[in-house]
Design brief:
- The chain is α+β, with helices and mostly antiparallel strands.
- It has one domain (about 1-195).
- The protein is about 40% helix and about 15% strand.
- The chain is built from nine helices and seven strands, in the order βαααααβαβββαββαα.
- The strands form two sheets. It has a five-stranded antiparallel sheet with strand order 2-6-3-4-5. A two-stranded antiparallel sheet has the order 1-7.
- The model is unreliable at about 205-215 (pLDDT under 50).
- InterPro entries: DUF3726 (IPR022201).
Amino acid sequence: MSHSLNEIEAMSKRAARGAGLSWGLAEEAAKGTRWLAGYGYPGPDLLADLLELNDRLPAIDFSPTSLNGLWQAPAGRMSPLISGATMSDCAIRMQEGQTITIEHVTQPLLIVPFASGAALRLGKAVALEWDQVRLTTDGKQLCVQGDKEGVLAAQTSIVRCSAPAQMMTPTKPVMRAHVSARCWERLGAFAQRTYAPATDASRLRGAGAGLNDND
């Protein structure tokens, strides 16, 4: 099904919140999912996979234990949302010549939108590398080097983030994206958790027949 990027962002935000993410991180996850979808990548599918894997588990388990040296998570797998947001906050380190190295990242493509934000703040393109893949963004365009299988890897041992980087054959985003019905259902199941259950009082306040349904 074809969806506008606004629809994708709204659904992703609800789904991320329903999976237990804070509203702030849910907003970041939604923006990142939208960003990837705009470049033709299955951001909604990647988000659904990540939410199912880490459903309602403590965020601290998938967060960096230290921002010095190699970033590692207590659970042995790093959230791309948490580490991505942290990387973006630490973007000045890359401007100073440091490479931010993150270990055992789940769905590493979900980090790339955070690099976009970092690039806009730095005014310089940021590159992310894992396995044989290199993705570079200046915040407005995206350059991808590497095969599709590597780009969509479910897990990678190391992600390296650096700046400045050179943009090669960049592409620009579009305004709509295709999301499968199955993926939409998966996200919808998480989003449903954010809706308050109906009560007698809420039914009476709402539209329709209320408690007296004589149809």
